[in-house]
Amino acid sequence: MARTRSKGGPASTSADKTASTTAKAASTSTYTLPAESTNPPKLFVLPKNTSSSARIITLENPRYGNPTRYLVCPETGSFYEFTKAAPPNKSTPRSWLLSSEKSEKEPALESQTIQSPDLYLATPYDPLFLLLPALFKSSSNSKSDNQQRQYLSLDDYLDLIPNTDRHFSEILTLPNSRIEKVLEARLASVCDLVEMGDDKMYRPNESKLSTIILSKASKMAENLPPSMEEKFIKKALEAPVMGVVKDQPPPPPPPPPTTSTSSPEETASPSASESQSTVTTSSGTTPSTAVTTPATEEAPEPAFAPAITASPATISLQRLRTSLNFILSSYLPPFLSKTVLSSLPSETFTELEEYLTKLSKLRTEAAASRNIDINGGKRARDEDDDERLEKKRKMEQEEKVKKANTSRGVKQLAKVNTAGMMKLSAFFKKA
Length: 431
What we know:
By secondary structure, the protein is of the alpha+beta class. It has helices at residues 9-29, 128-135, 143-147, 154-160, 167-172, 179-190, 206-221, 226-237, 264-268, 270-274, 312-331, 334-343, 350-404, 408-414; strands at 43-45, 55-60, 67-73, 78-85, 96-98, 112-114, 119-125, 191-196, 199-204, 241-245, 277-281, 284-288, 304-306. The strands form five sheets. The protein has a five-stranded mixed sheet with strand order 1-7-4-3-2. Strands 5-6 form a two-stranded antiparallel sheet. A two-stranded antiparallel ribbon has the order 8-9.
């Protein structure tokens, strides 16, 4: 008996394979996004010379008193603060796409996207600022309190630093830690030192602190950012223009007119005929050329200069003061900033103060003269408007009087349409 095969058998098998392949492709092309994290990661840029034992600790900010995170490397004894760099335009959406190259030692990490465009940079930080609130207390402002300060050890000052999370004490106990030696060196720079056997005792000194802060400001003033240079140096010292003309050499006098005589052959040339004039005299006609050089040079416009100009020494002092104010307002407690300013020599910014006093007077005079010009011009315009209105009022009043004296018949005749009619004077013309 011959075997029979149902129609469509192989076709149905191929259709099943195609359907299964499509389903697998659809399943592999579909990707479900994970839920948004409540604590998304942040991007930090750390220095290269930090060791694997570096830690991020939380300490009280010496300026504002709020908990702040710092990066500490125990092996090098270095402290770093985190500076946030954010894009200026927050309305434009930005993000970070992070990926790493695959190497033989370390496998490649998975790529990830960070939604926040902020960047945190670890910049060097002087640990002396962390010790200042413990060294100088706000209650010790008078000279008697300063004289009664006692010599204390480093451990005594460290106990006075607020350390609620115990991060600082844990960093000090790590093996191969150089933090204690670094803190001792920083204490010695602003304190009076007394050695008692193996122990070292410290007492804070305001004059030493002022010297350290002033040296930091001097170093910062050598290379200010362009934004601070433009806003706090150039604009702060720029004087108004008071119509002072710069000393310029007088313009050279115009050359005298020159007369040159040319031959008849030169006169016949087209180029010479355009610049020559023929003069007829009693002895005959002789071609003579009188070429004159007109004085076409315009007088130079007067160049105005500021009323006063800051000297290089004044500009340097302004940079120093700007840097000093930045350090005091960013890293020192408010009460200690006043102490540092009062400890500075009185003649430090004398030249700068004299220039700023003159500049303030000039700005006041310029503002007053500008107000006078504006008010004077406005007053002149008001007088012209009043005169124009007065003339208009008089003309309207004359027209009203004229209309009131006109008779009724004249008014009716004025309303008659005279288009196409001959005037009365046309009948009295000569034939």
